[in-house]
Amino acid sequence: MKKTLLIISVVIPFLFSCKKKEMEIATNKGTQLQQADYVKTDFYFRLPDYKGGEIKLEDYKGKPVLVMFFTETCPYCKKAAPYIESLHEKYNEKGLAVIGISTRDDKSSPQEFAKENNISFRLAYNGRETAKNYGIAGVPFIYLLDKSHNLFKVWAGYDRQYNNSIEEAINKVLN
Predict the structure, then answer these.
(1) Which pLDDT value is given to residue 37?
(2) Residues 122, 55 contacting (CB under 8 angstroms)
(3) DSSP of 46-106, one letter per residue?
(4) pTM
């Protein structure tokens, strides 16, 4: 009898702990499956948002993304900003995400840029390594990523002559 009680007192907790482990594994597998359906491309980034939190490319899964690299002091970035903002206003409801990435490490860079240029799209900072991964050689650089976040088109610098090309490309990735 004592042996039976001893066996029961050891086996029953063990069975329940195994069941708990199986449930944890199943739960973790579900989480992994949810994350696994997003494939990180060479253009993936995860950067701090100057308003707090993070900007992760995976949060825009299934959406094309227009990315502009900038610094707050760059005169061409300042020229591009109103146009990029107008694209955000025009295409946001149609599914285009617009993200600005400061190559500076300080969050004052996007704060100043947003305030000075009336920017409402999301702005990240500390983007120097991301810029290197994208292969930029200065600012501004404007990248259009398709819905799978592969490179669709890139514009080095900014000139108003790019506007038609940028909108044509946006319309292609949205359709």
Answers:
(1) 86
(2) yes
(3) EEEBTTSSEEEGGGGTTS-EEEEEE-TT-HHHHHHHHHHHHHHHHHGGGT-EEEEEESSSS
(4) 0.79
